[in-house]
Amino acid sequence: MNKQYVTADELVETLGVSKGKAYQIIRQLNDELAAEGFIKIAGKCPRKYFEKRYYGYDSKG
């Protein structure tokens, strides 16, 4: 089963950043979503939104 949310621990492994930086990235992405009216969950970010913002596309195409 694919996880819908990316966590700080995952970003540490994927991006090779510190845990503090990973939380900063999640916070920034969540703030962007909140500004658009979406509900945010502290410490987690929707995987599709992360992939879109970081890689410029999502993994599903």
Describe the structure.
By secondary structure, the protein is mostly helical. The chain has one domain (5-55). The protein is built from 3 helices and 2 strands, in the order βααβα. The chain has helices at 8-15, 19-35, 47-55; strands at residues 5-7, 44-46. A two-stranded antiparallel sheet has the order 1-2. Helix 1 (8-15) crosses helix 2. The longest helix has 17 residues, at 19-35.
Brief rundown of the structure:
By secondary structure, this protein is mainly alpha-helical. It has helices at 8-15, 19-35, 47-55; strands at 5-7, 44-46.
Q: Which parts are unreliable, with pLDDT below 50 for 5 consecutive residues or more?
A: none
Q: Count every beta strand, where a strand is a DSSP E run of 2 or more residues.
A: 2
Q: How would you state the average pLDDT, rounded?
A: 91
Which structural class do the helices and strands define?
A: mainly alpha
Radius of gyration: 11 Å
- Adjacency order of strands in the biggest sheet: 1-2
Number of helices: 3
Structural shape: globular
- What percent strand? 5-15%
The number of distinct structural domains comes to 1
Helix content: 55-70%
Largest sheet: 2 strands, antiparallel
* CA-CA gap between termini: 18 Å
Helix/strand order: EHHEH
